[in-house]
Automatic annotation (TrEMBL):
InterPro entries: Aldolase_TIM, Ribul_P_3_epim, Ribul_P_3_epim-like, RibuloseP-bd_barrel. Pfam families: Ribul_P_3_epim. It comes from Riesia pediculicola (strain USDA). The lineage of its organism: Bacteria, Pseudomonadati, Pseudomonadota, Gammaproteobacteria, Enterobacterales. It comes from the Bacteria. One of its GO terms (cellular component) is cytoplasm. This is Ribulose-phosphate 3-epimerase. GO terms for biological process: carbohydrate metabolic process; pentose-phosphate shunt.
Length: 236
């Protein structure tokens, strides 16, 4: 369903960081089958770039072999990353997202990703200036604004992220490029309205889906309906 030809329907990316890994295949299959999401977001943490250790390509491979058909978005919080980038490309993931850091251009990594038919995104930590977005505008397919400090699920949304989303939205719109804007961290049913109102394209949601109840599809459905309602209000 497209609400308005000029506004893309906002997607929900399911962050599996807070999911129960013991029943992951079954739970993700149900969420994908519901048709309410088409993106699974993987937080790849190496206990070095961020102080937490999660999972790697093996988990993606297992989910693919289990039969999960969705767009896999790989949020890399690792250093070094090049070997992992190649492994994820090999698995056929849809998108790889890399953190912007002071003094690092990322141009080589972004080129490797795109030359291999994968989408490339850049990620901004809450304190990182958005200045480099203009420089990298021709090298990327998406921008992800972190609304928490990366490393853990279940943190509170940083309010200043609303201003940063609006700033990123305006840089993207002025560029005229087909670049998607996402937001990651602390999204819940209470702050959803003001986040959707920034014109964001992808909402990465983890603990608000996996920690609330055992019926993940039901809660995802509540998010979907509310997002559609808020987006509809934006155009009316
Ligand atoms: C934080 C991760 C997020 C996190 C979002 O480093 O990048 O993707 O899983 O989870 P919630 O929705 O719990 O903030
Ligand atoms: Zn993430």
């Amino acid at each position: 369903m497209i609400i308005n030809p000029f506004i893309k329907r906002c997607s929900i990316a399911i962050s599996i960081l807070s999911a129960n890994l013991a029943s992951l295949g079954k739970d993700i299959a149900k969420l994908v089958r519901s048709g309410l999401t088409d993106i699974i977001h993987f937080d790849i943490m190496d206990n070095h770039y961020v102080p937490n250790l999660t999972f790697g390509p093996i988990l993606c491979k297992s989910l693919i072999e289990y039969g999960i058909q969705s767009n896999f978005h790989i949020h890399l919080m690792t250093d070094p990353s090049e070997r992992l980038i190649r492994e994820f490309i090999e698995l056929g993931v849809h998108q790889i997202l890399l953190h912007v850091e002071e003094g690092i251009t990322l141009k080589k990594e972004l080129r490797i990703i795109r030359e291999n038919g994968c989408k490339a995104g850049i990620v901004f930590n809450p304190k990182m200036s958005l200045e480099i977005l203009t420089t990298l505008i021709n090298e990327i397919d998406s921008v992800l604004i972190m609304s928490v400090n990366p490393g853990f699920g279940g943190q509170s949304f940083i309010e200043n992220s609303i201003k940063r989303l609006l700033e990123a939205r305006s840089i993207i719109d002025r560029s005229g490029k087909d670049i998607l804007l996402g937001v990651d961290g602390g999204i819940n049913l209470k702050n959803l309205k003001k986040i959707v109102e920034t014109g964001v394209d992808i909402l990465v949601i983890g603990s608000a889906i996996f920690n609330r109840s055992r019926n993940y599809v039901e809660i995802l459905n509540v998010f979907r309906k509310k997002i559609d309602f808020y987006q509809k209000k934006l155009v009316n």
